[in-house]
Amino acid sequence: MFKQPSIIHESAIIGAGTKIWAFSHVCENAVIGENCVIGEGVHIGPGVVIGDNCKIQNHALLYTGVTIGNRVFIGPNVVTTNDIDPQACGDWSERFRKTIIADDVAIGANSTILCGITIERGCRIGCGSLITKDCKAWHRYYNPNTQALQMAEMTTPTNGTIRIEP
Amino acid sequence: MFKQPSIIHESAIIGAGTKIWAFSHVCENAVIGENCVIGEGVHIGPGVVIGDNCKIQNHALLYTGVTIGNRVFIGPNVVTTNDIDPQACGDWSERFRKTIIADDVAIGANSTILCGITIERGCRIGCGSLITKDCKAWHRYYNPNTQALQMAEMTTPTNGTIRIEP
Amino acid sequence: MFKQPSIIHESAIIGAGTKIWAFSHVCENAVIGENCVIGEGVHIGPGVVIGDNCKIQNHALLYTGVTIGNRVFIGPNVVTTNDIDPQACGDWSERFRKTIIADDVAIGANSTILCGITIERGCRIGCGSLITKDCKAWHRYYNPNTQALQMAEMTTPTNGTIRIEP
Q1: CATH number of B1-166
Q2: What's the whole-model pTM score?
Q3: Which of A17, A39, A113, B52 makes the best surface tag, with the fewest CB within 10 Å?
């Protein structure tokens, strides 16, 4: 048993009633509202702003430049970005873009949000989405292609080995 | 060097020979069988049941409502879900769905499993899949669209800067 | 406040000026060059080689068999693999494949790299990609399907409940 090893920078502001689980990191000057739940292994970058009554699920990565409204659901493994064309070296200040996630938005697990984007109020984003454009208020977005996985039959295994028919 | 800071709830049952790596969290009333390997940063939610001889890879997130059989491979960053339409606020008990992952299933890295789904015995799910429907026994599923990434040529860099032809 | 609980194996070689953030694990015989930044919750498997001046973002999982050049950007939640058809049990040595990520490559967030692949110098991989084939030098790859999320209108909420029109 290990006691909640989270890292919360002393300059971060955390609202009353907000709970932060283990292995998370809240960076300098981040602001989190009241009655939020911040899951495990979450990264909240410098200066990120999160409103009240949000749920930020496990392993979500919210980078500098993101502003999140009230009553927002951020699913597990969701990543926001802030560089339109990242590289390992050099100045990237001209590639930095902000992202706005408005009130009442819900973003499904394992989704990726490109930067410079506004997700308007009440949007619902399906799991496994890659958001590349602004999303209109009170609309639902999902990737139709992922609904149609291709299927191939396998022969039943013998001796614990599964053979695949080509 | 840091000694294995995992969090294992005292009510969880862990079978003989099972190894749990660092930064993981096994919640209350979870049951894990024998000879499993649970990777780093894994979340095993309250009441989750996992059989024997499973490999749960790093950062897999297995939420309440999931039952996993024997000899199952769960790839890195795989997420299961348990809410058909998540929101940050309010009662969600009517949206809760269970998920069954049967014996001998293998799920590739970065896949997302919607809830209310049964993945039957011996299925193999390709990396980066979004599973939205039941999967038949001894079949292989993968996303054909992801095989066809689009390609655009870039000019070679000068002075360490990469210029992209529009 | 919690002091950097990372796990670095004593046999790993870490170059001068390289910084490793919290909750990360550098395994035995891994070699990391100079002036790299290794984010939070990163896994660097046994024998993985990383060059100089790389940025490995949060929660990237780099498994045994991967060789990474200089000035490489690995985005958050990126996963490399090393087994062409993983299963929980049995010998997998014949399924092991190496992966090469050459100098100046940048891989976007939440991408998955199948194994046995070479990503040649200067490639840029868009966020949320599944890389299944070799990538040619100085080319850009992205998934065209993910640009076209499907959209469905919702009615505005009443009493805090969002109703979806079927």
Answers
A1: 2.160.10.10
A2: 0.91
A3: A17
